[in-house]
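[User] Once you have settled down, look closely at the record that follows, and write a paragraph about the fold.
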Amino acid sequence: MSALPPTGAERLIQCLEREGVEYIFGLSGGAAMPIFDALVDSNIKLIMVRHEQGATHMADGYARATGKPGVVLVTSGPGATNTVTGLLTALMDSVPIIVLCGQTVSPMLGKDAFQEADVTGITYPVVKHSYLVKDGADIPRVTREAFYIASTGRPGPVLIDLPKDVTQGPCEAPFVDDVELPGYRVPSRADPDDIAAAAELLKSAKRPLLYVGNGAVISGAGKAIITLAERLRAPIVNTLLGKGAADETHPLHLGMLGMHGTAYANKAVVDCDLIMSIGARWDDRITGKLDEFCVDAVKIHVDVDPSEFNKMVPLDLAIHGDARLVVEDLLPMIEPGDTEAWLAQCDEWRRKYPLKYPKQGGLRAQHVLDRLHALTLGNAVIATDVGQHQMWAAQFCLSTTNRNWLSSGGAGTMGYGFPAAIGAQFGQPNKEVWSVSGDGGFQMTQAELATAAIHKLPVKCLIINNNYLGMVRQWQELFYDNRYSGVDLEGNPDFVKLAQAYGIQAWRIKRPADVDRILKLAHAYNEGPCVVVAEVVKEDNVFPMIPAGAAIKDMLIEKPRVRMEKPTGST
């Protein structure tokens, strides 16, 4: 008697195994049951989450920390729609994840069946590509294409919607290795003439600046960028998502630029005569008021995605190619620059406008994060949530290693940090992983404490608790006459007791004198997850700050003494 052919679900899991998938982050449901059943006999480990949004952020954190696509499996209807926030987060930050959704049986599509949703239609704006599989024979091809699309060129999320009759029906289609996608081209090396033109522009610059973004992280361009900076004798600045691409402790590195970047990085942006973007997209957090951004500076843009060219600022030179390969091809043409006066000026700004915070008046988030950096020395993976703590972490927790900094940039997704740290810990089991969250964002995905506890992950969660939605409160203080609305988080739980309810070790920091001792306890604790709750002052503000829509030159170093006009740009 001949063996039964594999089902669509079994063939799908076999395809995932061939792609080297280690983990699937997911939550079960009726329409996805054939796929979950097929996982029982697979070496792929299912990480069951408590909410589908958590699954997408875990897959995202895994992908950012490893460079490999993260995989999500959810059921139809609300299970699938709960992934939309994670898909947007991944799309905005160019993260390769694959979301597999169960779907109602094919004959019921479009008939408002139980837990049916037009998932491909709903998610078109927040994916790089999506598929609705109507024939089981397409599963091997679609799976191979999905991984290829997600991880090549400018990475991004891909969704595969799988009707239940397709996954439980037979599938004898062979595996697919080669991908044929007419019109989809993956750039690598740039036009040699563009490289030569960039070399000439750099040669003539007296005040060059290298502006490094997420594309440099994705391509692994950091070593080449450091070599370029040393050869040019040019300073480096990075975006929020460019942290770690080039070692932030390098003497030529001025840290993060933009809305809450260092004052010395922003002053270098204002005064440079050439700015070279390497895998950064000139977003509004960086440029401020566009018509006053680097008006007299030559602008070079290196990017794998040509749709970014001239989208925000007019360019003098656009170079289409992989960031690492472009910089490596440029290096042989670079001669040492005459930039001593420029570097001296940058050093003077660094001395005159250092990052600082009050040492009196209670426990400060900046103090906690400054000491976290002193403890980890930039070698830990840090995954942040979104808000004031995110900016303070970006300022004080310098990253020395690529893929050690995970943060939601483009979407600004609260609730991202803790599940992303869980995914990163799965992907990098031998690294120390810290989640840094605010009390507001943490509560959006706090149920994933169960996921960390079940797997005894040694992920460390630092909650900066000021009992406010701090960044919004800061804006209301500065621009809305202290008319606080919708920002007081009265009713917060006791986060230490909450962690303990999950069987998780937890500590509380209330005094500056306790910071080092408790952080060291968490640093040394590896028997499972742990939580550190820092009860910081309620009303503290992040500076430097460039008000939305203002020019970089109008950066605020400290709280203004006069009433500020409402900003014209987005928050």
About this structure: The chain has three domains: 8-168, 192-352, 365-543. The chain has a mean pLDDT of 96.
